[in-house]
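Dear colleague,

As promised, here are the two records you asked about, laid out in our usual form so they can be pasted straight into your sheet.

NAME FIELD: protein one
SEQUENCE, THEN STRUCTURE:
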Amino acid sequence: MENLHQHLSQALKQLRQANGWSLTLAAERTQVSKAMLGQIERGESSPTVATLWKIATGFNVPFSFFVQGQTQPAGSGATFCQPNAQMQVKPLLPYDDRLRFDLLEVTLAAGAQSDSSAHEAGVIEQVVVLEGELLLGLDGTWRRLPAGEAWQFAADKAHSYRNPLSTPLRFHSLIHYLQRP
């Protein structure tokens, strides 16, 4: 876990410097407080999955950029866990800039909910429930997806994932990113 925190710290610093952004500008673009961004850069805080998504969206990079690291290939056990262990995310394939997608395995603890802010315009997400039952919140309504079912939706709007059961939920999330100009 320490290597992941170090990677998050370095990745955030590199992105910010490569874009020439101050912490203030990064906070505006990501909708994450300047204090939180500073704590992540110094390795003093571990962000939630939702916060990491906001940072990735603000910098226009895939989520897996922060999780898989430069030295660990995706699928090699590089799993990001929230500090409260309510949600875990593991990239299953390395991000490919030519194809522009992330394939993630997501695990939600019993009774847990994760709220995701809108991704960049045009992002499409597909979820496939492997174990348990997913309540997918979109546009103020909840769609129930039992194991074996899939759904595709526009992820450029706020959306939520909820596990209504007393057992863990596991699903795949395939996220298609908009082509950069």
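NAME FIELD: protein two
SEQUENCE, THEN STRUCTURE:
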Amino acid sequence: MTTQHPSIDKQLERLPPLPVTVTRVLHVTANPESSANDLMKAILPDQTMCVTILRVANSALYGRPKKVASLEKAIVVLGFDEIRSIVLGKAALTTFRDMLRNHQAELEGFWDHAFTCGLAARIIAEYIGLQSGQFFMAGLLHDFGKLAMLLAFPGKYEIRNWMTALSDGRLLKQEMADFGVSHAVVGSRLLQHWQFPDTLISALRHHHQPNQAGSHCGYALVVQLADFLAHCCNAEEKPNETTLKELLAEQLPAFVEQWRQGKLPWEETTLEYLFAWLWVDRSHGRAILDILATR
């Protein structure tokens, strides 16, 4: 797979490799024979990562009645998928925050949307009975291709025009016309460069066209809906049930049909229920972004 754009490919080549901890964790979690002790040994040499995992495990987002006091306990309580997501998320966030430190204030809206989308994807996954950790990561990273494009096209890929707006059909066509590549394709290339799991790569590449995701269609549909709900959270006025349905029909007219074709549960009140859940959890879990982004 290639972006067929030299500026993007050159930018991806310039990206630093992810920390060795990430490589170790990906290796361990990909092996079905691995134990919790194997994963603990992969993480323990990285004390910053150990602290991050413990802080996330004890955050309001998880709401655990008893404090998780050790890495071993965190691995048992959270599971391999959640631990892998925390490790991947921290590595990706800190890498781009370092590279874009001169745009930190301008990108606050982008980071807020990324976190909200990750949280929404996690909520949707829980609602439909799937392991939620990898979906949080897919939502968090869904627009990271925009960060690579910001670096590849300085002064052209303008933050106010591209970084926080909902990427509807019109904006996606404009992106292709102006840059010859979409942020979704760039995002998938970015994750390939870092050797992320195929499910995440596919979710990023197809989150605007889930019907093209093949066996990973469900992942892409979850991220697409999460993206929509996250943008609704940033509306000037909190949308009610009627407004939510009207916006979904307007912005993603084929969504409900595709969702049901994927044999995913959808009731009359599903959209309102998911949005209400996100609205509450977003205020409780905002600290997660700061935890992941801290070195």
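A couple of things worth noting about protein two: The chain has a mean pLDDT of 89. The longest helix spans residues 71-99.

Best,
R.
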